[in-house]
Queue: 2 jobs
Job 1
Amino acid sequence: MVFLNFLARRLLFQVFVLFGVLVITFLISHVVPGDPALLLAGPRASPEVVAKIRSDLGLDRPLYRQFLIYVLGLVRGDLGTSVLTRRPVARDIAERFPATFELVTLAMLLVAIVGIFFGVVSAVYKERWVDQVTRVLGIAGASMPIFWLGLLALYLFYTWLGWVPGGGRIASNIDPPTRITGLYVIDSVLTRNWPALRSSLEHLILPVFVLSFASVASILRLTRACMLEVLNQDYIRSAQAKGLPQRRIIFIHALRNALLPTITVLGVTYGELLQGAVVTETLFSWPGMARYAVSSMTYLDYPAIMALTLVSAVIYTLINLLVDVLYGAIDPRVRYD
Amino acid sequence: MRAQGLGLGILACVLSAFSLAAKPPSDVLVFGSSVEAETLDPHDTVDNFAWRAIYYCYDRLVKFRGGTTEIEPALALSWEISPDGTSYTFHLRQGITFIDGAPFNAEAVAYSFRRLIELGRAASGTVEGILDVSGIEVIDEFTIRFVLNFPFIPFLGTLATNQASIVSPGVEQHGPADHGASWLAEHSAGTGPFYVKEWRRGDVIILARNENYWGPKPALREVQIRYIPEAAVLRELLEKGEVDMAEVLTDEQLDALAGVSGVTVFEAPSFSVCRLYLNCTKPYLSDVRVRQAISYAIDYEGIIYAVTKGHAVQMRGPIPQGMWGHDPSVPQYTRDLTKARALLAAAGYAKGFRLTMLIDPGIPAWVDIATIVQANLAEIGISVDIVGYARPTMRAMIDRSEHEISIGYWTPDYPDPDMFAWYWFYSKNRGLGGNRSFYTNPRMDELAVGQRAEPDPNKRLEMLKELQRIAVEDAVYVYLYQATYRTAMREWVKGYVYNPMLLYMPNFDTISKDYGAG
């Protein structure tokens, strides 16, 4: 009950946060000088065409009315029509979001599993060769720009070795699986479309690896540091003195305590991965949201910018909520109040 | 971490057993593009990358003959033009149906042009002020007449371009409020050799052959236009043969590809030009001697080399070479600092002054050009501040005459010098309309307006010659360069025909593939 109460309050609070985000984004994107009508009107825009487009888009109305119209539409579930693609923004995003979600979520899973596991291993085998290797990789991950790493990986694994495809979500001679969730991996499992599953997994390997590399490194170093601190504490020594198996001490007693900072950072990592997706999607011709975001910024496509910000804000606040919930699950001292 | 590396290695080995990088079938053309289309409505966009996808999904009344800008019949079998040049009567082909099953007739033609005009989008620019809805007359089921507001000489040429695509009246059922615009933005409804089968956003546009096409059947069953945003990756895909044709690549990449066996780099002159705008309403620049001095100070060869690696020629006046009406005898500015300094001194600015140059730093070529212009003008005492703004802002500033020097590309929509003469110099087009130097000259207005209505080609040529002479004398723009069009494809792509009016729009209808050819 206390937990549900906590959840309800947090969700209610979120609505206010999102409204704030909405107001700020609307103001910023509309105050920037420039006019999407001028871009839409083409290279040789006559004033008549520009005026017609501006009134079609509602840009000739006062700012507060534009905002009011937008919010009223939003309440009805209408995200507006994209200036650039001339389609409902909701459809544009629905089509692209699953691709980004699939990429970023798999990268996130890789970050969590690989980062935490090897963080623990390198703390336990401190100053041994495992630790040295992960340290080098940690520095490499923190200092290699995604763009460079991505090109390098493409050159090595696609051009030179030919092990993975050169980009896209699925091979050009294979039809995508029937759309259920929009996530190719899940849809192809659900429809038992094995060729599609294989092809989409092949296409995911390199982008997921490249996208997660930097974050794996930082989570790994963080987990290692926290683990080292915890492993030096008295209760661990007691556990060892009692003769508990080493594996149990590390993964049950120590890790649970060392995990709190890592969970916090993992929440932020999802945001970082979304950012990194812009470059990754470009490099790997990944038909996701990030490319759409870039072009909507370039063209001041207001409805798309608003909707994308809203989607990111929702994801971000949900992840934060999840992090808070996880705190309680990991640390019984944390109370939902 | 070693364990992870090992895991990846094993995974990769397993994967290598699969057959990746399969060549597409020989009747499927994979076209890789680093630019994605935004909308597919021919009556909306003027974007060549959108036109590439739809040009062969539609037919027009007339078409370009092969690689030339000459006009030949398409949906219209024949036509008559009234002696005063204002009335065009077209006799239409019979027995054709649209891909949606609607019959093709004069009503459909009338519908298409009404739709173009009433939507009032960028594409309508070519008929704006020339043809009104009231000028469209259906004579009988297969005869249509257009009555123009004035004798517009390039009219026939505009009918071969994408804006003049004939769209099925059936699109109306997808939303009468906007003439089905949001539906047509991602579908096609034409009589052409292909149709839009599927558009996976950010990924691929798939064109399928129209099996009921009235004309010669295309060899290709399917064309996949794949969006590969990173040009370096696109080049790799072409080298591996996973894409058959690729655009847009950088000059460095094209130079590298020229040495790859199995890949052809095609190169031909285009009508696409680059010019600097010298805002004639600003202090200093309002003086013709200052504009001439700037034109003499620019290092044209240096710019052409730095920006295009030599794949361009310096413009000679405003009308590009190869286009009817171009005057090869018009004087051309070359770098002459002595003359430039003398002109500045004569204007009373021997000590120089400051100017700003507005660019969009997102276009690397513009950054290079601005830097060279800055260095060139510094040599005659003009110090240039380069100001960068994102494209929407830059365009808004140019429209409001807030720039001093700025820059832009220009590619004609229809094969006629009118695209340069009228748009660039007519005073009513000041701003984004085309006259981006905000130039006003009553004589030039007469010439710009007069030439487009002059039915006698000889008289028209004389007018265009005078216009080009004044345009150079008055140094309205800095006429930088006329770009060379370059594109890369596999050698097994056969029958490619380049048409300078259809940049980035390869002839999918007559291209074929022959893997035996390498």
Job 2
Amino acid sequence: MLATIIDILSTGAFSASILFLVASGLQVVFGVQKIFNLACGSFYALGAYAGVSFVAAFARWGLPDPLFLISLLTGGVVIAAVGPFIERGLLRFIYGREEAFQLLLTFAIVLMIEDVIKLIWGRQPLTTGAVYLEFGSLSLFGATIPGYNLLVIVVAIGIAFGIEFLLLHTNFGRIMRGTANDSLMSQALGVDIPFLYVRVFTLGTLLGTLGGALQVPATQAITEMGVEQIVLAFAVVVIGGLGSMRGALVGALIVGISQALAISIYPEAEVFLIYAIVVLVLVVRPRGLLPATTA
Amino acid sequence: MRRTTLQQALTVLAFVVLALLPLVLDIYRTRLLITFFGFGIALLGFNLLFAHAGLMSFGHALYLALGAYTAAFMTSRFEIYSMELIVLTAIGVAALVAMLTGALCVRYVEVYFAMLTFAFSMLFYTALLKTYHLTGGDEGMPVDRPHLLGLDLTDVAYLDFLTGPYYYYALGVLILATFIMWRLVRSHFGLSLRSIRDNPQKAEFLGIPVQRYQLVCLCHCGDVRGGWRSPDGTSRWSGRCRTRLLDRVWHRGIYGAARRLCQPSRPPGRRPGVHQSARRGAVADPVLALGVRCHSCRYGDCCSNWTDGTIGSPWTATHARFAPTSIVSRS
């Protein structure tokens, strides 16, 4: 019994860490640019594929296996370079448009990236091989927790603190929060809005790609992973509250753990349970559990 | 009627050309056209939602899949082969599902609406995928060849069936759907929809349920397509309803056609103002006279000025009578 509970909690915390990264990318972009970026799921998929490629490449160049986390993170960071291009090349044309068009455009990006992935990496599911087992596993009251999962949880918590620090204690963060509140005013005060948007979008992209890169050793990279992640990320931000970072954290924990719970008890209900929660939250607290106070 | 003559003439001409095309085209291209009819019907529905009501549905594929799976279930499980029956059942099923999901979705706007519809379609997709014993998961379900207008065409060769009777059947359904939509967007109902789109605040009070009904209409169309998309491959290989494929193909289909497919030209003659139709509506729906408005309106008198405008359709009135609270958006 205890073992089952620990199992559920640890699996849930692992998927919550990944979900938090992707959803916080969504939140950052939504908060500042007011665009609901469906492509966050594609960045996640891109990150996963880049992670696979970088792990393979670095291993060939002689990086010892236990250090594969470095190659994953590098992959995530490098592939985040698509962010500025997408922002400058496509998104900047639709800031003033209706939301429906913004959704259409970002969804078009999702489809395009999916095809680009097929073009570059092919349709076959890819894995990072056996590196997942590199960190062994931890036995606790009869439950087994893979060492890699623990590591990812630690890294995600680190990134969460990093974002917190960035938002609250740096100048960039203050500008971001100010722009989220009132972009016209911050423009009047001399903030270079287009440049800020590029940086914010890149940050959002980076969070998504890192999430994908960290996820991939535990599962595999498949072409549909992006679309599925969008729906989960949406569940996370709706439960937590759109535009709020703490909301993303709480939402990710709720979604991750209920997913793990459903999988261990009645796997068919996995998605259903999450949406039951989403519907409940929407009916009872339409603004989410921890709505953004400012933006 | 004079102002729409050109558009009507072009539409009719297009249908005539389509009817003649199998004489010219080879089999492969004729088959492609059947898919085109399918998308056409589905997009009529999507267009009603997006262009006339300003609602962006990302989960439209759900209704396609519902229609397709209804057809699959009826032919291969219950051995009902009448295509007309299949289509009617598909409409019923999709309308039911749309009422349930729509009741929730229309409470929210923009991002929430789009994502909720998307979420419902993903939910259904997962359900299809996981109930392997029922739906065959990602293997799909076979759809047996249906009877068209009561004719058993089992003896006709597969490609002959598709490019002959089935082609014209599909074209007929498309024409019928186009005509219905044409009438619909010119009715009070269509007018109400556009007033909702253009001024949601004003129309919100009774606009919301209108959108719901309109969601239902949309799926009628969507699933008519679904219903016959599947039997287009009566041979087992392409006749399977592939969940993924439907989703994919559908999402791609949306973009091109979205806005203007069946965009109405201006209504013939003088465009009836909102108030005009309102008065007519108020007279036409005796339910209103019974004081439904006060009953369902939470804002007291302030809305009475413009409720008339959107309450014009009997749909709404019925709704106001039987489900007054659910009409008012709570968000």
